[in-house]
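BUG: 3D viewer hangs when loading the predicted structure for this chain

Environment: internal workstation, default settings.
Expected: structure renders.
Actual: progress bar stalls at 90%.

Input used:
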Amino acid sequence: MQQFPAFSKIPLLLFVCVVVASLWALTREWQKPLLDLHSFRQTQTAISAYYMVGNPGVFFDYITPVLGKPWRIPMEVPFYQWIVARWHELSGMGLDQSGKLVSIVFLLACLWPIWKLLEELTISLAARWLSAAVFLSVPLHLYWGRAFLIETMGLFLSLSMAACLFAGYQKKNWRWLVAGLAFGILAALCKITTWALACGVTGLLVLFSNGIPKRNDILWVAAAGFAAVLPIVPGKLWLNHGDSVKSANPFALEIITANSAKQTAWNFGTWEQKTSPDIWQHISRHITDQLLPPIPIVGHWLVPLILIAGAAASPHRIPLILIFLVGFAAGPLIFTNLYFEHNYYWVANGVWLLLALGVALAGIAECDPKAKWPAPVATVACAVICIAGFAAWQQKFLPILQNLPTREKLAEVWIKPVQDSVPPDRTILILGNDWNPNSLYYAERKGIAFPSADWIPLPGPQLEESLKNLGPDEKLGAVVVNEQLLNSGNQAFFTDFLNRLGMSQNGSRTAFGILFPSSDLAAPN
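Structure tokens produced before the viewer hung:
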């Protein structure tokens, strides 16, 4: 393994510069609310953490009060939400900022399994610094690494599983395999789609990274494979448990039970999607926006050129590059609709493309141990990629954060009007914004965010059942209607609808729609 010692300090210096720059980028607009890209998913995670605050014993039975009562609609096991709630209590840091911080910590923690995995794959020290620098400089991680999401925690657990299991196989060490199994179980419970990709990559590494396993390695291959696959059992058990709980909620039963046909189609997509050029063109934009930003002269082609050059310069690295590329491609190929709809899903598989790039850079640097040019070429190429990543983040993603309203503005146009109108125990019905939790999270109120699914009519049996589930102290305190609904010829319908629900006809404009308080709460004329 070529270490190119004469040049080894420069990759380390590049990595240190990237760490400083990435921490600066990750903390921009720190106090702004969670109303940026995919705020729907961010506030859904945040509202679960909010209701864990002050209740450290709440874990498996956590609530996400956005689809009415019963309030529990468990999806992932809430490791991330629980940690955020505890940090918020211990530090006094705002809940939004606590979630961002925990996400950043797990992003940085990913450097350990990346380093360990590359070390076991005999990637040189300097090339590991370059790989780590690339990982922290792409827009994907600069933006989503600070979001109030479980993505970086799921990635850390999944990468740690892969690193430990591969180390156990390489070292013939049962302790590493046990550690990998533990990380794998946690990963599957936290984010099963991220775990699934890491599981596949781990299997390919064990089988093919060193060539076909020898006969005396079969036991270790089987052990590593078993440890990689076994987490599917607790993962599946949790999904079944979550479905059993969600089935008591009339809306959750219809839209988010994990084993339903609708949810399966949502996760994996349809054959029409998988074969649609338009879908793949849209998916490719996620890649070029977040992972392969344009570079002057070469455009989006620098990374593909490095992959080709690294494979040509060090052919023994080709299997490893291909394994990581398969792990990257498997995400959108398997979970097509998720990767089409949610650009944060690329956190789960983007790392495999970046590891392929790191191996290719190592291949370039190692191609001629006697020559002085390979190491500088690899380092300069890495530096160009890092600079392009920060430039793309600053151009495309930083403005999104800068354009967010301040917390003070949000309080003026939403938080204060709602909290002045609706007591804490009363429920809010939100119409016309799908089951988006933004409004409920910032109002600090439980509610029914009516889903905009074609098969769920308004008012319909689901809403009727949901309202019957409310206790006397939880009855509707207000209905918030998106103004587009009111301005589309539905005034007569909503007049009758609000009357039947006992709401005042005197509404007030808020950030999320017209708020109609309950008649018993409405201020007298």
